[in-house]
Structures are given as structure tokens and as C-alpha cells.
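Researcher: We're teaching a course module on how sequence relates to structure. For the next exercise, students receive a sequence and then see the predicted structure as C-alpha cells, so they can try to spot secondary structure elements on their own. Here is the exercise chain.
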Amino acid sequence: MVEYALGSCIWRHKGKDENGMYNGKRGFTLIELLVVIAIIAILAAILFPVFAKARENARQTQCLSNMKQISTGFMMYAQDYDEMLPQYLSNGSQPYPNGEASNGSQLWYHRIFPYLKSINILNCPSVSTKYTGGFFIGDNDRFSYGYNGWLASAHNSGGWVGASLSEIKIPADTPLISECDYINVTSDPAYYNNSKLPCARHADNTVNMGFCDGHVKAVQLAAWVTNSAPSANDPVWVKWMPELQ
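Model: And here is the predicted structure for the students to work with:
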């Protein structure tokens, strides 16, 4: 065997083959292998977070697309029902999205489903527990999107009903739906509980919201949650509650 020393590397030739030619095979030293492994580890540490963020950005974009279609479904429903938004819970015999017969009760997402057509639209891709089309989701009513509770159960002389579009004075600032772990959403943990607050599922503590003028966007969670009682002096409550606008 012929060896050539070059720095820390050793080039080895195993001599001539049966044809009298050097085979030119080379072996790797331990140092070379360690250097290659270190480079791969450094690249992995740099690239894996980048790939993870790219995947999350894609999920957030799909979530915004879902919310845009849901918001459009709400507006189409309102146009068919004298500009009244659906109530949180009402009576009805419309079959559920998965084809099951109604138990006599209809939640808001059952009411607008004829305008959506796809169950997948009701599921945020960042949520592991998926709605499959029945009455409740089956996990303590956990859901991908919450309907603004102050629109879902507006009070008038006829009882508890969905809000009228004419009541909403600042539709571009009034949340219609928000990412939430419950089917209804509000801005104050004292009024419901933390499971019914907007939840930041995506990068930079952002939450996707759909508004009453039909647009959707990612917003900073902190700007949409308050610990005060409902008041026209609190800009957060003014945005959530049409009666304070």
C-alpha cells in the first residue's frame, strides 16, 4: 500500500490491480468525518427552524383563507335573513354537515354551512382536534373558530337573537369570528373563561380574525383582550359590542 501524507489527511493507494493499474481508492480519516458531521449539524440547526416557520406560515395562510370563506358565509346568511346574523343556538331540523339528522338544535356553524359546502373550512390546520360535521365537536365543544358572543346572542324585545348588521356601527373593527378553542369567543376572561378568549396559534403571538365588513387579518392578541367590565370607555369592549358603539 502506498500512502501520501497531506496535512492531517492520508491518501492511500492499495497498489496495482490485476491489470497493473493503481485503483485510486481513497479512505477518509476520522477528522474528515467529524468535520462533515459538524457541518451537517450546523446546517440542520440553521435550516430546521426556517422550515418549521415556513410550514407554520403556510398553515396561517390556510387558516386565513378558511376564515374568509366563513365570513362570506355569515354575510350570505344575513342577506337571506333580513340582514340578521345567526344566533349562537336555535331550533331547526336542517341536517348536520356530515349528513346526520338534526336533534332539533342548530349551532351557528350549522346555520351557515349551506354557504360553505366543506367541513374542512371549519378546521384550522394548526388544530389537532378536528370538527367532523356533527352537532358538537365532541371535546367539550372545542372548536377552531369562535363566533363573537356579543353578535351571536344579541338581546332585543323579541328575546335572544343574532345581531342585525345595522346595529354594527364600525364593521371594519368589529370581530365576527376569531381563532378560539370554543365555538363562541369574547374579550374578557371574567365574563366567560380563558377557553373562550381569542387564542394565538401562530407566529409572533398573532391571532387570525374575521371582521364584520368581510375582511380577515392576523392581529396581535394583546390588543383584543381586556380585564375590565364592559364599558364605552374601553376601546376593546367598543370593538366587540355593537351596543357600545
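Model: If you want an answer key for the exercise: The helical segments are 30-80, 108-112, 149-152, 235-240. The first strand starts at residue 2 and ends at 6.
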